[in-house]
Amino acid sequence: MVAASRTDADSLARMAAHAAASLIPAETDWRCARTVREAASANPHKVIVTRWTHAGHTPLKVTSDGSDTFHCVAINLKCAEFAFKHAGSSVIDGRLTAGVAQVTPPGVPTETLFATSADLLHLFVPQPVLEACYRDLYQHNPSHAISLDDPALIRDPVVERLSQALIGAPAGDVIGGKMFVEKISLAIVSRIVAHHYARSVRRLTQGAHPLPQWRLERVSEFVDAHLGEKIGLPEMASSAGLTRMHFAAQFRRATGMGPHEYLLRRRIDRAKQLLRDSHFSVLDIAISCGFESQPHFTTVFRKQVGEPPARWKASLPASCS
Fold first, then answer.
1. CATH label of the domain that carries residue 264
2. How many domains does the chain have?
3. Measured by CB atoms within 10 angstroms of the end CB, which terminus of the chain is less buried, N or C?
4. Alpha helix locations (H) across the chain?
5. 149 belongs to a structural domain
6. Cβ neighbours of residue 231 closer than 8 Å, sequence gap 6 or more
7. Cα–Cα distance between 77 and 98 in angstroms, integer?
8. Contact 293, 304 (CB under 8 A)
9. Same domain flag for 194 and 225
10. Are 196 and 224 members of one domain?
11. Rounded distance, CA 39 to CA 43, Å?
12. What is the arrangement of strands in the sheet containing 89-96, beginning at the earlier edge strand?
């Protein structure tokens, strides 16, 4: 029994030492809101990353009332067995593999009973970071405060790889290590935000009616008339007279593709026409079709057509060029 306890203690010490060495502080009180507030006091617009470990020699029950302002993204780092309740409802009751994530929004109480040893990352995310990730993903501001309120588990191999990179942050270079932790944690949050809105769109799409033909024609005419301008989902939804979320769902039901994909296809179609019928440079065509730069245009063109625009133009019959 003594040997087993010593082994557990040694294991816990190694995990704690690794957490310290990787620039991620060990979490002494599970999801402690006060600790998070203190850590965020110096920079309220920053993701706070902590690591929770349990040696597992005895079962452990922990509870949290939740933070008033922070979302908590939990990522399981090793296979473990535990029961997790979110607002009183069971989310996990059994063995969970490494790499699985779960999000708890502000003000939601949680309870966990660890039956085995456990190792988890906690990312405490303030609202400004969620909004910044949303803007980067969708190129417009959210219409309201973001609440990632779906407690369902997220199984994403990209999140798993990013979390493993996060705990392996270089400890030798403190400044570089902190920047690394910040960038990787932001990448994880961005991925989580994208998952949330993809789920929301899928739920709406499943119950949505296809966009009526007259609205679809109005959107098509609007897009073609403004291809050279900076337009996106808000402008397309407005042209159809719908909210962004309902427009996106109905548009996908009607066309089988998202509004952004449709917009890129129309821009590439226009670019192909100009490459075939004009003597404009690739840069001029890129700008006139609404791309921010020639490299961006070339990347999208190659992805959709299979080769860069200059090579595609060169392959056209002489009568077409």
1. 1.10.10.60
2. 2
3. N
4. 2-21, 33-40, 127-138, 157-167, 174-207, 213-225, 233-240, 244-255, 259-277, 282-288, 294-305, 309-314
5. yes
6. 222, 223, 263, 290
7. 5
8. no
9. no
10. no
11. 8
12. 60-64, 110-114, 80-86, 89-96
Residue 150 · residue 192 · CB < 8 Å: no
- Claim to verify: residue 95 and residue 231 sit in the same structural domain: no
* Digit-coded pLDDT (tens) for 93-112: 999 999 999 999 999 999 99
Which pair of structure tokens corresponds to residue 290?
């609404």
Question: How many residues in the chain?
Answer: 321
Give the number of C-alpha atoms closer than 13 A to the C-alpha of residue 266, restricted to the C-beta side: 21
What are the tens digits of pLDDT across the range 214-231?
A: 999 999 999 999 999 988
Q: Which two tokens stand for residue 292?
A: 């921010």
Q: Are residues 59 and 99 in the same domain?
A: yes
Note whether 170 and 257 are same-domain residues. no
- Antiparallel, parallel or unpaired: β 154-155 and 100-104: antiparallel
The residue assigned the tokens 């405490």 is 124
